[in-house]
Amino acid sequence: MTEPIIEITGLCKAFGPLEVLKGIDLTVRRGEVVCIIGPSGSGKSTMLRCVNLLEEPTGGKVVVDGVELTDEDCDIDRARTRVGMVFQGFNLFAHLSVLDNLTIAQRKVLGRSKGEAEMVARENLAKVGLSEKAESTPGQLSGGQQQRVAIARALSMNPEVMLFDEPTSALDPELVGDVLGVMRQLADDGMTMLVVTHEMQFAREVADRVLFMDGGYVVEEGPAEQVIGAPREERTRSFLARVLDPVHNAGA
Amino acid sequence: MSGKSGLSKRQRAKVFRISQYVLLVAVVVVFAITADWAEIRRAFFDFDVAAQQFPNVITIALKNTIIYTVLGFAFGLSLGLILALMRLSSVAPYRWLSTIYIEFFRGLPALLVFIAIGTGIPLAFKDTHITREVSIMLALGLVGAAYMAETIRAGIQAVPKGQVEAARSLGMSQGRAMITIVIPQAFRIILPPLTNELILLTKDSSLAYLLGSTLAEQELAQFGRQALTSFKSLTPVLVVGLCYLIITIPLSLLSRRLENKFGSGGMTTRGVGG
């Protein structure tokens, strides 16, 4: 495979006395799709948020595309433009039209002209199948549409890496497929993706590698087939049993 | 009003409501009978006197009231925004300063602030010539800022945290995210209370008389008081009162419309905060 683009070593994060991450090592190569699974409270979202420093690590090193984000002299705003992020709650700018959501950072941060920014924005809206919604406001869109706009917004910065923090967890079940479809397309196009998700089917089909996290550690990692299909660790097995068949494994 | 036994709960509520109406009508009737209507009409509704208030009540008094209010509001809003940002700052001394300012000016009657400005500024800055408009703007703005700072702070805090996170994740600095993402949304949220603040300032501008004035500088309240003495009639008070309502009632209606527009889901996004 190609060169590493994300290198995380010894990553620790504590909120006061609460240790959420207890030493994470992870290398992601360019073009790789890595899914992170695990029970709630396992630290998977916190880990993802450390990759663009929305959470400041209390220990360890995060290097993205050759830039050490954890270095105090790092221009974090600049570095973040290369790392797109999609949130569980969409977080579209509520006071701006869809088009302005996609162009505002391009213009204010990357210094692109209005014309160029709009061209890039419309390309990305087409990619997520929402060209006709450019003039809508976020409030007029369904959850699934909002999340696709959020993906297009992140893509408009031409990031090297995309982070997804439970992108379908806030959606009605019938809308999940549209968002996963867009993500699958993105993966096929060769985007490097780090995805925190509960969608096991998606992880199995799209991920090159799956990480199972629990209690602030990476408990198990490997190809999707192995981690989801034939987990080695007991903790992974019991988690998967609960997720894949919740009716018969309550409290297992 | 009585809790007579034998009546159902709904019947008792009905009796209670009817007795309220009866009381209300009785109060109105008593006032109407005891008041000296001829005297009231003579004092308040003297059309000759009313006619003589024009055009000055509009061209001078109403105009000045609007100018003083707008100046004071503009200054107060700017200062209020700065105070709100200080209040939310991570730098502790900024927070302290802002809190002290807000508590200080919210706790004082506006009247005292006007007196302090009127006498204090000429004493403190002898050589500089500060015009009367500037003094009024300062006094109104200093008081208004304390109230507006708290409103703006609440508005900023009402913007979901995810909005800032999204902005930061796109590479915006803290300041840029505040200016382009948070503050515009905060102002939409607080437009109705800010409109109310403008109404309050319109009335507070009546304190401008404390800073002395010639006829050309009079605002509505002072104009009314002067006419009251020179015409020996209460009619100018009525005219001036109507002029205030011409300003404040449309503002009040505007505030209510804004509340309906922005309050009923026009701004909310599904999923945010959910």
Report what the structure shows.
- The complex is a heterodimer of chains A (252) and B (274).
- In chain A, helix 3 (98-108) packs across helix 4 and helix 5 runs parallel beside helix 6 (173-188).
- Chain A contains nine helices and ten strands.
- Chain A starts with a strand and ends in an 8-residue tail after the last helix.
- In chain A, the strands form two sheets. Chain A has a six-stranded mixed sheet, sandwiched between helices. In chain A, strands 2-1-4-5 form a four-stranded antiparallel sheet, with helices on one face.
- Chain A is globular.
- Chain A is 36% helix and 25% strand.
- The model of chain A has no long low-confidence stretch (mean pLDDT 94).
- In chain A, strand 7 (161-165), helix 6 and strand 8 form a beta-alpha-beta unit.
- Chain A is an alpha/beta fold.
- Chain A has helices at residues 44-51, 76-80, 98-108, 114-127, 143-155, 173-188, 200-206, 224-229, 234-244, and strands spanning 4-15, 18-29, 33-37, 59-64, 67-68, 83-86, 161-165, 192-196, 209-214, 217-222.
- Chain B has a domain at 62-213 and 250-262: MetI-like (MetI-like fold, Orthogonal Bundle).
- Chain B is flat, with a radius of gyration of 25 Å.
- With 274 residues, chain B is mainly α.
- Helix content of chain B is 77%, strand content 0%.
- Mean pLDDT of chain B is 87; it is low at 264-274.
- The A-B interface holds A 52, 54, 77-78, 80-81, 83-85, 87-95, 104-105, 108-110, 138-139, 142-143, 146, 150, 153-154, 157, 170 and B 160, 162-163, 165-173, 176, 180-181, 184-185, 188, 265-274.
